[in-house]
Protein: PST family polysaccharide transporter
Amino acid sequence: MLAVKALKGAGWLVFSRFVGRIIDFFTLLVLARTLTPADFGLAALATSLVVVVDTMLEVPVTQALVRLPTIDKSHLDTGFTVGLLRGVLIGTIVLAAAWPYSWINRDSHLVLLVAVLALGPISRGLTSPAMINFARQLGFRQTFILESSGKLSASIIAMFVVLNGGAYWAIVANFVVASFASTVASYVLAPYRPAFSLVRLPDFAGFIGWFSSAQLISALNWQFDRFLIGALADRTTLGRYAVASDVAVIPTQSLIGPALQPVMAAFSQINADRARVRQAFLKATRFAMLISAPACVGISLTADLATDLLLGAKWEHAAPLLSLLALAVAPIPYFQTLSSVSVALDRPHVIFRLNAVDLCFRMLLITIGFYLGSVTGVSLARIALSTLMFAFYLSEARRLLEVSIVAQLRNLWKVAVAVTAMAIMVWFLRHELAGRNYPHVLELALVIALGAATYAATLLLLGVRLIAGRGRLELFDR
Structure:
């Protein structure tokens, strides 16, 4: 059945992203204990420019082809050609912007850093378009192989560079090699003979217009704070903020994001039945928040333990930032689910509108936050922004799917109660353990175990259960 097939696909993607994050996290631990926050700050500033250009020129080949009834070789050729042209354009823009960007930020090292980092998105754009056949069939085992091989190769090269005194170049190597190795692996998994053609471009054009505009604004949303901090603060401060922000988004990037990729394909297969789509959206949002909300709150409540244990003493000033930023990313899964259903219903303008609203408020709130409280003020501003944007997500879902805001909130109240119970228990346990000088690894393990048990028990008491079997997947709510 469709639900079980989507579940299997989501399982492979979640497992793939989980393994990738484990590799990334191991790499981060080694690099964080070897390099300084200033090294991370410099690399983050260079990466921000490349990410904005990359996202600005993002071509949603996978999303566009998944929603088509049928595809043939000409579709794949068009996708490959667009990716190649995109790579040329990325290289041209990045090289043209490298020197002015380094001058604005008063750091000549940025010129070469930005130029080398651009090789990552260029190579990723040449991934075999034949990989789309697996996505259309909700089969993502090959995606697991693709991503894992890229991450593992990148980690090995980064370790080699840092252990040989390469400093921040290890971060650059990790970024570039991951994309290059994945591209090579894609042709092994999904053989494709490159051919140049734009004959199927009309099948992409309308979709790409709205999607690319939304991606550009989304990139500015995610990188605006780093641009601002990089221009007005020192590299050490930016490095602490960047690492805290990257760790904070692990739940949404590792679990929810990949799980929603097959969900989008499932939405596409039922998009003619608006009632089914509405019901599927409510189930998907509840499941997404069921996973991400406790993870975000848990990270927030244990940020000091996790930072000291995993990153080391020199990162202690990043812990308060992580505690705040983890809360700021909590509503993201709701937006990710709404984005998936918008794409499935051929309404990419919804994503554009939400990202545009986000950018307007973000520029205002984060600027004020930095003026009033430096990076701590920025972190608090992001919490305020997330709360505000969640209201817009609810409103947009009501308009798109005709599901009331009250119904959406009622869909999530049991998750909110369970997370609150977990937070109270974790806070109480940490208060009791304070001053007893337990090893941080033991204290963190106890807190995680009791918090998870409290969360699960509360959900069970409220009648929430996940049931899979007989061709169906249901989040049962008594």
Summary: Residues 394 and 405 are 6 Å apart (CA to CA). Strands lie at 464-469, 472-477. Residues 2-472 form one domain.
